[in-house]
Amino acid sequence: MNKVYASAEAAVADIPDGATIMAGGFGLCGIPENLILALRDRGVKGLTIISNNCGVDDWGLGPLLQTRQIRKMISSYVGENKEFERQYLSGELEVELCPQGTLAERIRAGGAGIPAFFTPTGYGTVVAEGKETRNFDGRNYVMERALFADFAIVKAWKGDRGGNLVYNKTARNFNPMMATAARVTIAEVEELVDVGEIDPDAVHTPGIYVKRVLRGPSYQKRIERRTVSTPSGREA
To answer: 32-55 burial, b for 16+ CB within 10 Å, e for fewer?
Structure first.
């Protein structure tokens, strides 16, 4: 099977309107920049996006909000995107907020074939409304359903033609678990090598999970919130 695609546009060509997509990254770190822009240019609508956050107004997943391509967001943190706030408050965007650790476990469970699990996080809050709760050993828990997507778009530092992936430090974040929790996982990499060039012990995501891989032509790698220190040691 040939997993290598010539471009991000080719790799997302069959993603339909209404698809559920997991998008890796944390803030602007480790995001699949080229695949996101390819989705924007393709113009697919009514998307449900599962991602830790929605980027900023003009980068990350932000461009998909600007073009009104996202119908629903399932995420943990959305505070850096003013357009997200505007669409949510105006009723244009459906939002399911999920505690960050719970979101990570829902994705991991989806990839492991576990349909649901119990967590104490959120018990007694609005997070638990409408959900099953149970008591185990004197502590109350909320049942959370696993997440599984039609497609996952992830970003890795290095990949081979078989889809084996290596992530770079904190850019690893949500990418590995999302790669396991979708029917079709599409990975963009900075460096594409032949099978056998990556030490098997260094592989973070085995190629069995990855259906498509491409070398991204360029990366901006923006810093979401830049801070510097003054001579006194205080942040400017």
So the answer is: bbbbbbbbbeeebeebbbbbbbbb
Query: In degrees rounded to 5, what are phi and psi of residue 213?
Result: -140, 145
Q: What is the pLDDT of residue 79?
A: 78
CA distance 179 to 175: 6
73 DSSP β-pair partners: 49, 95
Q: Where are the domains of the chain?
A: 8-215
**pLDDT digit string (tens) for 131-142?**
999 999 999 999
C-alpha 150/C-alpha 139 separation (Å) is 35
| 236 pLDDT above the threshold of 60 | no
State the average pLDDT for the chain. Answer: 95
What integer is the mean pLDDT of 92-119? 97
Residue 76 buriedness (CB in 10 A; 0-12 / 13-18 / 19+):
middle
The SS3 assignment for 59 reads: strand
CATH superfamily of 8-215: Glutaconate Coenzyme A-transferase (3.40.1080.10)
Give the SS3 label for residue 176.
helix
- Dihedral (CA of 121, 123, 124, 130) sign: positive
Residues 6+ apart with CB under 8 A from 171: 25, 29, 30, 155, 157
Whole-number Å distance between alpha carbons of 226 and 236: 10
Candidates 41, 8, 35; CA nearest to 23 is 35
| CA neighbor of 10 nearest in space, from 38, 33, 37, 31 | 38
